[in-house]
UniProtKB/TrEMBL annotation, chain A:
<dbReference type="GO" id="GO:0015920">
    <property type="term" value="P:lipopolysaccharide transport"/>
</dbReference>
<feature type="transmembrane region" description="Helical">
    <location>
        <begin position="119"/>
        <end position="151"/>
    </location>
</feature>
<dbReference type="InterPro" id="IPR047817">
    <property type="entry name" value="ABC2_TM_bact-type"/>
</dbReference>
<keyword id="KW-1133">Transmembrane helix</keyword>
<dbReference type="InterPro" id="IPR000412">
    <property type="entry name" value="ABC_2_transport"/>
</dbReference>
<dbReference type="InterPro" id="IPR013525">
    <property type="entry name" value="ABC2_TM"/>
</dbReference>
<keyword id="KW-0813">Transport</keyword>
<feature type="domain" description="ABC transmembrane type-2">
    <location>
        <begin position="50"/>
        <end position="275"/>
    </location>
</feature>
<dbReference type="GO" id="GO:0140359">
    <property type="term" value="F:ABC-type transporter activity"/>
</dbReference>
UniProtKB/TrEMBL annotation, chain B:
<protein>
    <submittedName>
        <fullName>Lipopolysaccharide transport system ATP-binding protein</fullName>
    </submittedName>
</protein>
<dbReference type="GO" id="GO:0016887">
    <property type="term" value="F:ATP hydrolysis activity"/>
</dbReference>
<dbReference type="InterPro" id="IPR050683">
    <property type="entry name" value="Bact_Polysacc_Export_ATP-bd"/>
</dbReference>
<dbReference type="GO" id="GO:0005524">
    <property type="term" value="F:ATP binding"/>
</dbReference>
<dbReference type="Pfam" id="PF00005">
    <property type="entry name" value="ABC_tran"/>
</dbReference>
<keyword id="KW-0067">ATP-binding</keyword>
<dbReference type="InterPro" id="IPR003593">
    <property type="entry name" value="AAA+_ATPase"/>
</dbReference>
<keyword id="KW-0547">Nucleotide-binding</keyword>
<dbReference type="InterPro" id="IPR027417">
    <property type="entry name" value="P-loop_NTPase"/>
</dbReference>
Length: 283, 423
């Protein structure tokens, strides 16, 4: 009889190592991520007549509202762009961020019943949220492209350019920022629920601090600094610039955004990892 | 002896009682302040043994305290104990849904836990989709599920409904499907909570059979938590008895179960002598005396019958006062409830009542029983419930040479005739 291997495959201890993110384990649960994304997508529009068309209706109605209020009544500049294209570009990319953040931030509370019964790497849940919103974003971008193409053909003042190649990067950065910030908030809300109340209108306020309904160029100098400090501003502006050729983008701004994203993501993952093991006792 | 597959060392878990949230911040700050100064956690010391029936002084309790045991590969270990003994906490820590406060568990191999069936089932998705989703949540890869898919559907017996949303399923079908997914996991260690209390008798049998297969044929290790001593005896090779967060007995299944069923010193009567204000009870009812015995004052046997004598003080006047005795067997299954309406015309008085119950002989089978007493108003409101006031034993009477207990809850003495004719 040969000697059995004496090593333990796993040790359950009070505290996990701070940097032990268990990425290998995360990879093993890749199938779960796919299943969760599928579930989100299929379950949302089951038993609705219009089904995924709802993905179109939301941004369209919002765009029409913004055109009326901000465009026609408040007469905020759209940088000489057709209003529909200007607002829809902002709304499409902003909604992705806002939805991802809102859902990620309440991930512990929403999934307490699953988390309480079965173990799997908790990071899967926020990741699945960001990815399933990505599917939605894809559909909404196609709507934007339709409208954008219509204006392009009818000769509006649109100049698509090489920055289009950066659009995937913009989306990834947006996703990671939502994920990072969402994980920090979700970790804090397991004990103190106060932040949830702050979150809903906090996200709304954040939209006004991001050039979604106004262009960077319309800002007075003294506010421009504040808006630039928001790492989302550059991303929204870049997204719009790539398709239309109007807006203010800079490599420094992009670099700043990248740094902020990385910091948020790392911080979020660390805090989340620390809380996930004990949250069941407090949530 | 081979090496253990699970080793639990000095495992403890502390919970905070009461409302979490109020005062949490101040405790957190205090903890942090002690930590900064290099002292031990001020709240880790003050926990007490977790006995839910007595009131403690501390806000913190130890749900588990200094648990040590190990499990060999291929063993099926039963974990038994009353409600609140710490069984579920132990399972939660083993299944990694919560972390221990101190101590550690070392494990060789993958753990899958079945604390609940159908975790993550989505009512809108079809049976097929849910098998994949639930399987993935439980830790199976897509490939593994593909391989097991037909076996799962077959085991659950829902082939016709596999493409129907599970919200249209009957609750039995739902549970069967959920258990089927779980039963086809292939971990080295399987942790099972009392999920067997679901489905019809036929399915329960199937589940027990499946669990036996898992351990006997596939050589996997199973930890099984249950109140059902029958199932524990049938399945487990050894067992652990937990009480108030401490291990009180470890050994083979038969010994542990019988220890658990005869645990501790039994209170066979309650007789309160002292200041009336301090007698057990509350503002409405104070229990002075409760006695169990048989007519001739000797041991209670199957034929002797059982007498209960209750003396209590009633405070609330002009209500319809009622009392109920609840008889439970050693598996904590309620055998019967015996109600008695003391007053029916809203004329209860403030004073001492004495009530005698008699259960005639040849009613209950031999075994250990416990009595809870429930006082009620208007048959609607509970004035006071005394849980497990006393325990008593009914001694077996042999039939012929058979010295074993007969199975079942009842032991009746029917009138039997027998005739014989020569061929």
């Amino acid at each position: 009889m040969h000697e059995e291997k004496a090593e333990w495959t796993e040790i359950i201890e009070p505290r996990a190592h701070l940097l032990d993110l268990k990425l290998r384990e995360l990879w093993r649960y890749c199938d779960l991520l796919i299943m969760l994304v599928r579930r989100d997508f299929v379950a949302t529009y089951k038993q609705t007549i219009l089904g995924p068309i709802w993905f179109f209706i939301q941004p369209l109605l919002t765009t029409v509202t913004y055109m009326l209020i901000f465009g026609n009544i408040a007469k905020i500049s759209t940088d000489g762009l057709p209003m529909a294209v200007f607002y829809l570009a902002g709304i499409t990319i902003w909604n992705y961020y806002a939805d991802s953040l809102n859902k990620t931030a309440t991930v512990f509370r929403d999934n307490a019943n699953i988390f309480g019964k079965v173990y799997f790497p908790r990071l899967i849940m926020p990741l699945s949220i960001v990815v399933s919103n990505l599917v939605r974003l894809g559909i909404q971008v196609s709507l934007f492209l339709l409208i954008w193409a219509y204006y392009l053909i009818s000769g509006a003042n649109l100049h698509p350019n090489l920055y289009l190649l950066l659009v995937p990067l913009v989306v990834v950065l947006m996703a990671f920022q939502a994920l990072g910030l969402g994980m920090i908030i979700s970790a804090l809300t397991t004990k103190y629920r106060d932040l949830i109340f702050l979150l809903t209108f906090g996200v709304q306020l954040l939209m006004y601090a991001t050039p979604v309904i106004y262009p960077m160029s319309a800002l007075p100098k003294k506010y421009a600094m504040v808006i630039h400090a928001n790492p989302l501003s550059e991303l929204v502006e870049l997204f719009r610039y790539a398709f239309t050729g109007s807006g203010q983008v800079s490599w420094e701004g992009l670099a700043y955004s990248v740094v902020c994203t990385v910091v948020l993501l790392v911080l979020g993952a660390l805090i989340f990892n620390r809380v996930e093991r004990k949250f069941m006792d407090t949530v | 002896m081979s090496q253990p597959i699970i080793q639990v060392e000095h495992l403890s878990k502390q919970y905070r009682l009461g409302e979490v949230g109020t005062g949490t911040l101040s405790h957190d700050l205090k903890r942090w302040w002690y930590k900064v100064r290099g002292k031990e956690d001020p709240f880790a010391r003050i926990g007490e043994v977790n006995d839910r029936s007595t009131k403690g002084d501390s806000e913190y309790v130890w749900a588990l305290k200094d648990i040590n045991f190990s499990v060999q590969p291929g063993e099926v270990v039963g974990i038994i104990g009353r409600n609140g003994a710490g069984k579920s906490t132990l399972l939660k820590i083993l299944s990694k849904t919560t972390a221990p406060t101190t101590g550690r568990i070392k494990v060789r191999g993958r753990i899958a836990s079945l604390l609940e069936v159908g975790t993550g089932f989505h009512p809108e998705l079809t049976g097929r989709e849910n098998i994949y989703l639930n399987g993935a949540i439980l830790g199976m890869t897509r490939k593994e599920i593909n391989r097991q898919f037909d076996a799962i559907v077959d085991f659950a017996g829902v082939e016709r409904y596999v493409d129907t949303p599970v919200k249209r399923y009957s609750s039995g079908m739902y549970v069967r499907l959920a258990f089927a997914v779980a039963a086809h996991l292939e971990p080295e260690i399987l942790i099972v909570d009392e999920v067997l209390a679901v489905g019809d008798a036929e399915f329960q049998k199937k589940c027990l059979g499946k669990m036996k297969d898992v351990s006997v044929q596939d050589g996997r290790t199973v930890l099984f938590v249950s109140h059902n001593m029958g199932a524990v005896k049938q399945l487990c090779t050894s067992a652990i008895a937990l009480e108030n967060g401490l291990i009180t007995y470890v050994g083979n299944t038969i010994d542990t179960v019988s220890y658990y069923q005869n645990r501790g010193e039994k209170k066979t009567y309650l007789n309160y002598i002292g200041l009336v204000e301090k007698a057990p009870g509350n503002a409405f009812i104070k229990l002075l005396k409760f006695e169990v015995g048989s007519k001739d004052g000797k041991v209670i046997t199957i034929s002797s019958g059982i007498d209960f004598n209750i003396v209590f003080i009633n405070v609330k006047v002009n209500i319809n006062l009622a009392v109920s005795l609840i008889v439970q067997n050693s598996d904590e299954i309620i055998i019967c409830e015996i109600p008695y309406l003391i007053t029916t015309e809203r004329n209860s008085k403030h004073g001492i009542y004495e009530i005698n119950f008699n259960i005639p002989g040849y009613t209950l089978n031999a075994g250990t029983y416990s009595i809870s007493i429930l006082f009620g108003e208007d048959q609607r409101f509970v004035l006071k419930k005394f849980e497990h006031v006393v325990e008593f034993e009914i001694v077996n009477e042999y039939i012929g040479n058979n010295i074993n207990n007969l199975p079942g809850f009842l032991r009746i003495n029917p009138f039997i005739t027998c005739e014989f004719k020569d061929l």
